[in-house]
Amino acid sequence: MKILVVDDEADVQPLFLQRFRKEIRNNEIEFDFALSGEDALKYLEDKHSEVVLILSDINMPGMSGIELLGHIREDFGDPPPPPVVMMVTAYGDEENYKQAMDKGANDFLTKPLDFDLLKQKLKNLTA
Predict the structure, then answer these.
(1) Residue 79: its pLDDT value, please?
(2) Fewest beta carbons less than 10 Å away: which of 37, 40, 86, 92?
C-alpha cells in the first residue's frame, strides 16, 4: 500500500518511518512525503494511480489541506478508484471537520497522531 503523507513539518517523515518500520520492512506499506499541497499535486500527476491513501495536514502555508483535498477530488477521482484521504490537524475543531468532510475527506485525525489508531484504520482499509 502506497501512502502519501503531506505535511509542511519535515520532522513528520522520520516519525512515520520509525513508527512503521516493521510494515515497511515487510513491504506492507510504502511511504512518500510532500512538504506542501503544491508538491503533493505535482507528485500525484505522475503517481496518482499508485497511491491508496493520502494523509494530509490541514494547516499548511500556501495551499491548505482543505484546498488540496478539493483538487484531489476534482482531478484524481476516476479512473482508477480515487485515493482514500484522511485529514490531519492539531486543531480538532468542528469547522475544520465540517470543511474536510464536505470536500470529500474519508476520515479526520488529530495531532499528536495516535499511531496505534492509524494502524488499525489502515488494517480496516486493506480488509
Answers:
(1) 65
(2) 92
